[in-house]
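User: Please predict structures.

Assistant: First:
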Amino acid sequence: MAILKPSFVRPIVLTLVGVLMINLIGFGLHLALGKPVTLIIDGETTTTRLVSGNVGVVFLKNDITLQPGDLVSHDITETVTTDMVITIEYSRPIDLTLNGQRGTYWTNSASVNSLIDDLGLAEASIKVSPNRQAQIPREGMAVTIETGHDIVLTADGTTQTVHGYGTVRTALNDLGIIWGEDDIITPDPSSMLADELAVTIIRVRHETITRQAPIPFEINNTKDPAQPLGKVSVSIPGVNGLKDQTVVVTFHDGEVFVEKVIAEEVLTEPVTQVQTTGSKPPDVLANVSPGSAQAIAYDMVKARGWSDAEFQCLVNLWQRESGWRTTAGNKKSGAYGIPQALPGSKMASAGPDWQTNPATQIKWGLGYISKRYGTPCGAWNSFLAKGWY
């Protein structure tokens, strides 16, 4: 191996020093002569310099990595110019829950407050978590937003319009309203609020009581063909029994809603009533005077499909009630007309001439009998038992 003489060492050292000086001068020139570029990234401003190249070179120099959805003011192939301003707004995934609906929402907003603007909710009444001033990291975050609504709340005897957010449950909790597990809330507490939504709370309470109650007596009835139809003869009167009951009473808003008997104890047994009821049909009238009230009634009875026996029951009934007079009135009770309607003005439903027209009165009277007793004989039997029908 040859050994260099000292005379050759100095030029090599000088050459290395020269190269180093040239590089340092070049770096200084780069700093001095590079074009200033302003970077505004998510609202934060920094300055860099570049001698030559495009926007992509600026990103490489400053370790800027872009992702789909990022907003950039200049194309990466665009040549850098002096005092160029490059703006970048990074895209961020938001795990967004809006009024109970959850999904991923991509935004270029850097803060929750800006996100609210982006969603078009800046002017809305909303409840948001986290804080509006919170910054959104590039990797995103979870945000919950509930819009406010005026609802109509009925609870504890009052109805009022209140402002709430999110679900029925959330609104009631925010209002400090406490409810029991048996209370009935409509709609379901998980329902989302809506403007003018009617929300009702029914307070439910259960109470166990003991009481005595009658045991109704049974009736042993035998038909007696020798007695007039409907006549009741009692040989052994019935007597109600008595029992103790344990009852669970359910109250809705303080009013009894339902009762459930959970236990009973018989104290005295009831006594069965023994009776006979006449089954002998009444004698049927052979004739009625043409044009009379009874003749009108006969035609109406037959039109309803009732028998002559039913007509005879009707004759007997209204003979006892009014003597078949259209103007028969009871000053004490106010009953009026052939059927003794109480009050007489009820017959106006059958016609305006109810005070004088027998056909109008009979039409109303037969309708009343049909609805309440089924047939004239049913009404007559009731009259025989009670003295009225």
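Second:
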Amino acid sequence: MAIIECPECRKEVSNKAEACPNCGFGVAKYIERQNTISQIQDEAEREAYLYVKQKRKEKEEREEREKKAKEDFKNDVYYQAIDKYKSDSSAEVEEAEQLFLSISGWKDSDIFLIKCQERIKELRQQEVIKEEIAKKKNRRITVFAVAAFVLAGIVIGWYSYYRVIVVPQGIYDSAVHNIEAGNYEEAIRQLQTIPEHKGASEKIAESRYLEAKRLADNQKYKKALKILELLEGNKDADALKDKCQDAIKYGLALSKFDVKKYEEAVDLLKNNEFDNNAQKLKECYKELACQELSEGEYDNAIKHFELAEYQGEEYQEAYYQKGIEAYEILNYNAAIQCFNRVLNYKDSQEVLLKAETALNQQYDIHATDRELLYGCWYKSLEDGGRVISIDTSEQSRKIWTGWDYNYTVEYVKKNLQWFEERSHGEQDSIVNNGDGTYSMLSLDDSGDKYKLITFKISGDGLEVISVFYDTWKDSVGVYKKVG
């Protein structure tokens, strides 16, 4: 046992006392209430901590998945470049160089870029030597010294012309023929052996684009994208790249749709210009809406039905259930709006009429009841000691309740004026339920109304029939008016 200060009269009183011996204030109930408030605050802090912790974990997992996908793509390019680097063809090594350049900074790609340049130079020299050796085998040497000297000069001049002009042009013409025949890889290989030839780089870009387009036409979108990555700044290539990416997203969306992950499918289909995408997006919206309807998420279901341009039975059911829900929590205006949208569905017209009737009578307080209700009512300390102060004037239909305290009749009379002043500051309203009872309504965070308490005039007393919170269950019962 401890001695504390009475919250009402500030005099010393035992913390085990039911009521203050000086003023009648309910000490035990006051201490119990303070302990409950402390427990609620502790629980709210713990739940907030767990919520923030969960959100942080989800963010970290998402970032880790994105990082892994990028690493996998770079690894694919890296190992493809390694394979081409090992080739004895300068054209293959040039392709490896382009691949290493596209993932610059990844692993030892920058080192391999330097190695590629050295190897390309070495291989080209070897190829020239081999070509010259082959030609020398067919060369006839004159036995006449003077003729040989003259002929040598002619041959050397012709060879230079042949090697610098004739051979590159022949290779270029052959590459153009391969492009026209659809042999794009061979054309690229040929053109890469004559990098100095006018038009070679443009033809390489053209060949790569046409090869990527052929792959895309055959639905090999990922392979097409790898080629298109080498064509930066090309409008046609950028457009084809967007098409391939949309196609890949579309295919992934179909797989999500098949396992009923409609939200993920919608995210993939939004802003997607792939063929048949618009129709599939509507199907996703419809299935997502049906899913939300089954879960009681009526507003979301309606929104997604409308995006699907669907107004069938499920759409009407969503509006109907939303109307029923609004009607049950006394939000008659919202209920009327919903039922007007589906007048011919189920018993919508019948419930609409009830909602309109309830809305008209909701704020009608009978004159006799108005006079009886107004004032301050109490339950004795033995019956729970609750106090209710009611204002039923036209300007203010409100109620104040002293749920959490034990009051004696003397305490109520002494503070009647304070209770009446307090009642004018509340925002909750009294409504007529249409069955001889009245309720005090309150708003929740979403703006919906619910019945805080329900009561009626019972003889010369006021009877509280039901309460919203279980913790207020002791408040049910008959109250007497303070004289």
